[in-house]
Each structure stands twice: as structure tokens, then as C-alpha cells.
């Protein structure tokens, strides 16, 4: 899709709307005052859950009201298969949002923040809730920017035990680690189902965590000859998986 994407709560048009939709609030302000859309330009409206509709700008009113016309049919983009989930250990500073942003851009389906034992950053109390909200807002904005209509799900903060449970239910489970005897580029991947990949923190995945994940069926895989930062490893690995599974075919 080449038209700019805007997020709405629902694509259900009220009776008698004639295929017109009013985009207001923050999204309307972005369309009118930032993007400066004008009558005749194409737009895409989506709920971020796979439903989307194409329309044409009829009018830009004030600073935050965009009238869209010709919204006659709502499409649904099916969930991609295999589904790719990245368990992302908490990076330092704002590099967590960077990881979420770039993983969203390449097409990761779900991101699970993980409180690894060697994480310097810890999400606790109100600070943790705000950090999670930032990750989710980042995924939403990056989804719009990359013209996605199905945004990645950003789960609740997971413990090592919860990550192990997630890995145990996957069709392919792996941990990015330099100790891996097999390259991720040569791993045998499923064509459907669920792929779950764990990215450790700056200090690495601890031996205890590696053992726990191995018991859940997750093998250690190396990505390449260099060691990537935790904020970029998930994006690089995700691109590799998307290519090898044919989703980038």
C-alpha cells in the first residue's frame, strides 16, 4: 500500500453515512496539520487488527478533521503464517523502543518484553507500566509508518518461566546465542504455526536461562560472525526468518 495509513477504533460506518467517514482527534490532526492531506488524495483507514479500507479525502476542515469518502468495502488481511514472535530482553534506555520500531517495520507479528536475569533495566510499578505503554505506542506508530494494517501485539512483561512456557508451545523455538552450533540461516523452519525466538540482554542469556529454555525445546542458534546489540538482533533475525519462510518472497 502506498497511501498513508490512519488508525480508527472501528471501520463500521453508521447507517446513512453514504460511505463517508470523519477522521478527527489526534489522527485527524496528524492527517490535516502534519500530513497536510488535501481533497482527492488516497488514504487507508485501519483498526490495526487486519481490517482496512481505502478512501479518498473529500475535505480537510480546521486543524483536526478529515472527511473521507468512498469507503464502501472493508477488507481483512489474514494473519501471516508462520507467525513470528520475538521475546525481547529489556535493553537500556530508549533502545527498547528502537527494537520495537524496527521489528515492527520488518514485519514481526508479536513482541514479548522479557525481564532477563542480566537485564540492567527493570520494569517495576508505575515505571514499568509507562515503559510498556511506550512500547505499545511505538508499535502502533511504526505500524502506521510502515503501512501495516495488522500491527504487532506487544505482550505483558514475561518472566523466564513464562518465556519457557511460550517456547514449549511453539512449532520452532530458538535462542540467539553465540554458543549455538547451528546457524539460524540453516535451521529447519516450519511453513505454518508459530516461531518463537529469544533475544537476550546486553549481558547475555545466563546459563540457567539457557538450560531452562533448552528443557522447553529451544535450541541455541548463532546469527552471524559478529555479535549484535540486543536492540538490533531481533530485527536482523526477524528479517532472516521472514525471508527463509517465504513471507518475503
From TrEMBL:
EC number: 2.1.1.193
Source superkingdom: Bacteria
Keyword rRNA processing: yes
Major localization listed first in the record, in broad terms: cytoplasm
Pfam families per record: Methyltrans_RNA, PUA_4
SUPFAM superfamilies, per the entry: alpha/beta knot (SSF75217), PUA domain-like (SSF88697)
Domain Ribosomal RNA small subunit methyltransferase E PUA-like: 23-67
All copies of domain Ribosomal RNA small subunit methyltransferase E methyltransferase, residue ranges: 82-241
Enzyme class name: transferase
Record key words, sorted: Cytoplasm, Methyltransferase, rRNA processing, S-adenosyl-L-methionine, Transferase
Transmembrane annotation, as ranges: none
An example Gene Ontology molecular-function term: methyltransferase activity
Subcellular location(s) per record: Cytoplasm
Annotated catalysed reactions: uridine(1498) in 16S rRNA + S-adenosyl-L-methionine = N(3)-methyluridine(1498) in 16S rRNA + S-adenosyl-L-homocysteine + H(+)
GO biological process, one term: methylation
NCBIfam families associated with the record: PRK11713.2-3, RsmE family RNA methyltransferase
Family named by the database record: Belongs to the RNA methyltransferase RsmE family.
Function statement: Specifically methylates the N3 position of the uracil ring of uridine 1498 (m3U1498) in 16S rRNA. Acts on the fully assembled 30S ribosomal subunit.
Protein name per UniProt: Ribosomal RNA small subunit methyltransferase E
Species the sequence originates in: Streptomyces heilongjiangensis
